[in-house]
Amino acid sequence: MKETAIFAGGCFWCMVKPFREYPGVISIVSGYTGGHTLNPTYEEVCQGITGHTEAVKIEFDPESLSYTDLLTIYWQQTDPTDAFGQFEDRGDSYRPVIFYSSEKQKELAQKSKQDLIDSNRYTDPIVTKIEPASEFFEAETYHQDFYLKNPSRYEQSSQRRKDFLENVWGE
Length: 171
Fold this sequence. Notes:
Elements: E1 3-8, H1 13-20, E2 25-33, H2 42-47, E3 53-60, H3 67-75, E4 85-86, E5 89-90, E6 97-100, H4 103-119, E7 129-132, E8 136-138, H5 146-149, H6 151-169
């Protein structure tokens, strides 16, 4: 049995590797969701004309890795206080969103968000949205597993994120 989780947290290039490292993750696909255009392209999404955000769709084995575990990983990859993008990626297509596909996922996402608020880890408000999943469109092939195909460019594009996360969460 497998389940699906969809998370948006800025550039999808930076959202694949952190999840890939966990046993129980079956696949991760970079793509676009939450918009109003069918089959959007990267260029259209970046122009902000489709309403989509870059996201990752994760298929996982809940017997090995729970949705709650994935939520914990998610919070440790994003700046949940920034509604207008993530790190050097600015704009609506980079907004942080947890897309739920069931009432159980919605409840767990809301609880994890409240737990993060209650932790007082951040002084600014937690603004990450929790929204129902909508159609997910797979990104172009060159975006899939970008960190493996272009490691130096991936490192460059993810340095601000790494620095921020180490400051908030430690190593």
